[in-house]
Every structure is written in structure tokens, then in C-alpha cells.
Specification:
Keywords: Transferase. This protein is an alpha+beta fold and 204 residues long. The protein folds into two domains: 72 residues, Glutaredoxin (3-Layer(aba) Sandwich); 110 residues, Glutathione S-transferase Yfyf (Class Pi), Chain A, domain 2 (Up-down Bundle). It is 53% helix and 7% strand. The protein is built from eight helices and four strands, in the order βαβββααααααα. A four-stranded mixed beta sheet has the order 2-1-3-4, covered by helices on one side.
Length: 204
């Protein structure tokens, strides 16, 4: 398999963490989707990363789809319960963490791609409101638990850890570690795993 992505994308990181946890072999191809010469639409018509190219040349895209598929490929480190309420809770956590990222990335792009005089303060405020509301909900759901769902490591923890890691990378001014010590504790614990240590976001 070949994963197309970047070292800065939290969605790509989620898939890389899953691949590492599942101990699956893959090659990693860097792709900058923001440059004119990008070829990403040859494999993903939506022009997004991550994109997983299968052995037969078919492709999967969207990190949630890819992660769910990969969990079926190997019995090692099952990240999704087979069915029922617990599986739904894991998927809700993933949607929550990804939603925080969706809003934060819109702010990042607004600030990066538009000159200051064209930026919408109202738009930025609205998106940051989603980020902060999402973090509050993540903290409330986690409580004093060691893991996001149940008593063991799941895809919920992968998604949450990647979201928190990207906020630390791109939004150091958001004081989630101070405001939500339980999220900081979770993030620190996850950072001890090789899958997280080896995928810390950086600008290549």
C-alpha cells in the first residue's frame, strides 16, 4: 500500500498512527496539495489527503474511511469494537476530534491565505468558538478516565491525540493543556507510544 499525504496534516497522521499500530507495511509519498503542480486529483478527485493507494491500484480517501478499513486488515491492536454502543462512542469521539480540526484548519487557512485586510474576524471567531466548544466536550467526555472510551486504547484516542497534537503544532496560543489537564494527561500518555513519537507533525 502507498499512503499519499504530508507530515503536517493531522488527518494523515491519524492514518499513519493506525498503520503503525496495526504493523502494516506501506510506503509514504509526500504531496503538497496547495501547489499548482500537485497531482493529487489523479488519485482523489476531491484533491485531499490522506489518500491510500491499494495493491490493485484502487484508492481510499478520507481518514475515517481509511482508518476503519485498516482496522479490518489485521487483528493486531483492534481499534474499533465490532458493533454496538461502544463502537458508536468511538466514532463519535473521532467525529468530535475531527470537527475540532476542521474548524481550526479553517482559521489557519484564513490567516495564511488571505492578507490581513481581507480576513474575516467574524468568521475566525465563529470557527474558534467551535474549537473551544469541542475541547470542552472532549474534556467532559474524558473525565478522569485513562482512555477516551472504555478501559483500553481505541481509534478515539488516536483521533483525539492527533487533534491535540496539531493544535499544539499550529495554535500554541490555545491553552488547552492548562485549561484541560485531563486532555494534557491523555496527550502525554499517547506521546509515549512509538506510533505517536514517529509521526509528530513538522514542516518538511
Amino acid at each position: 500500500m502507498k499512503l499519499i499525504g504530508s507530515t503536517t496534516s493531522p488527518y494523515v497522521r491519524k492514518v499513519r498512527v493506525v498503520l503503525a499500530e496495526k504493523k502494516l507495511d506501506f510506503s509514504f509519498e509526500q504531496e503538497n496539495v496547495w501547489v499548482p503542480e500537485t497531482t493529487i486529483q489523479q488519485v482523489n478527485p476531491l484533491g485531499k489527503i490522506p489518500c491510500l493507494v491499494m495493491e490493485d491500484g484502487s484508492t481510499l480517501y478520507d481518514s475515517r474511511v481509511i482508518a476503519e478499513y485498516l482496522d479490518t486488515v489485521s487483528p493486531v491492536c483492534k481499534l474499533l469494537p465490532p458493533s454496538g454502543r461502544e463502537r458508536t462512542e468511538v466514532k463519535v469521539w473521532e467525529a468530535l476530534a475531527d470537527g475540532v480540526l476542521d474548524a481550526a484548519i479553517l482559521v489557519f487557512l484564513e490567516r495564511r491565505e488571505r492578507p490581513p485586510e481581507q480576513q474575516s474576524a467574524k468568521w475566525i471567531e465563529r470557527q474558534l468558538g467551535k474549537v473551544h466548544a469541542g475541547l470542552r466536550e472532549m474534556s467532559a467526555r474524558l473525565g478522569d478516565s485513562s482512555y477516551c472510551v472504555g478501559t483500553h486504547y481505541t481509534l478515539a484516542d488516536v483521533a483525539a491525540g492527533c487533534a491535540l497534537g496539531w493544535l499544539a503544532f499550529r495554535f500554541p496560543d490555545i491553552a488547552w493543556r492548562t485549561d484541560y489537564p485531563n486532555l494534557a494527561r491523555l496527550s502525554d500518555k499517547l506521546s509515549e507510544r512509538a506510533s505517536f513519537r514517529d509521526t509528530v507533525p513538522f514542516v518538511a
